[in-house]
Description:
By secondary structure, the chain is α+β, with helices and mostly antiparallel strands. The chain has helices spanning about 5-25, 130-140, 195-205, and strands at about 35-40, 45, 55-60, 65-70, 75-80, 90-100, 105-110, 115, 145-150, 160-165, 170-180, 180-185, 220-225, 230, 240-245, 250-255.
Amino acid sequence: MNRFENRVRLVMVFSLMSLIFSQEISAQNLVNGAQYYAWNVKGTVVYSDTNTASEILDSLAFGTKVQVTDASYPKVIRNFQVESDKDQIDYSLKGHWVKISAEDVEGYVFDGELSKRLPLELPENKRPEREDDYLERTLGEGVVTEKKEPLGTEPNIYYRWIKDIKFADGSYIHWVNIEGCDMGEFFISGANINQVYFMFTAFHYMRAGVYYVDTGSIVRLKNIAGSRLEFTYSEESNGNYITTKEDGKVVFGGGLCG
Length: 258
């Protein structure tokens, strides 16, 4: 084998390793026998086997307690199609199948829909629990720091107000207010991009209400800009996004004016 063939072979090996890594990077290390919660507001579908063509056994309601019975049977990659605006974007979350038992059903689900974190409150006909209220309820009070920064020049000076809340587990909230517009960024420690997606859609969901023009739906993917996923707006917010920062943290956020 000559030097060129060696180089081609090496590139192919690294390309394959990169593909495998990118597929498995969002997979969770679930623990057999441990309890988790279903976080898909549209229902976590339970299948009879590790493929979506198999029989659908049930759809678990948001917040259902789930026990993992086998987190490695088998290690099959699962692509979960993300809903996009007008079905124009083909984007999938990548994770694994996991065997679970819940209530009176046992079968296979997408591991990204499960989290150890307590579910947020989703009252009927009301806005879902706010992100800051949820984190304070489940983690306790965080450490708050505030500051204001002047913008512009006299006589047209105005201020940017910044409020940071840091929690004991590393989760944080970063608020910025400029001229009546609030922009928030939220980081939930330990959550990978799959879990963040389901948490994000839950925080922007309203059951049987009018929070969205398309009642009972979820925010939909409208654009991909590098690692930034941008979503459709709700009636009360804009600029909804999920992104992976340079330090590897997966965060989500959006704005509210008025």
